[in-house]
Amino acid sequence: MGQFFYANSPDGFDIDDRALTHLRIVIYAKLRRNESFGFSWDNTQGPGVERISVWLNASVPLRFSFASGEPLAVNRSWLEQLTQSADTPAGLYLSPEPSTSRAL
């Protein structure tokens, strides 16, 4: 289980390493193009489900911390799905990995 750190918060949000790998690629691509966007995900730690949303732009410090030291294979279909959601007015939403995978 990795962690996503937003702004200068010392507390990270737990996100599976595989999902975090894909999110990092999509987020870096958007920020490299100087595009600001929203990012939302469902936090299932603790009782119930909490929807978390943050605004991402190049001036906000971000950190991705992975539990695994090994690079993970990338699912091209999932990258495309996440990128498409990031390009909508609702912003990037961490959706489940599609069952069909086209590895990179």
Automatic annotation (TrEMBL):
DUF7882 domain: residues covered: 1-97
Entries under InterPro entries matching the protein: DUF7882
One Pfam family matching this protein: DUF7882
Top-level taxon in the UniProt lineage: Bacteria
UniProt-recorded name of the protein: DUF7882 domain-containing protein
UniProt source species: Salinibacterium xinjiangense
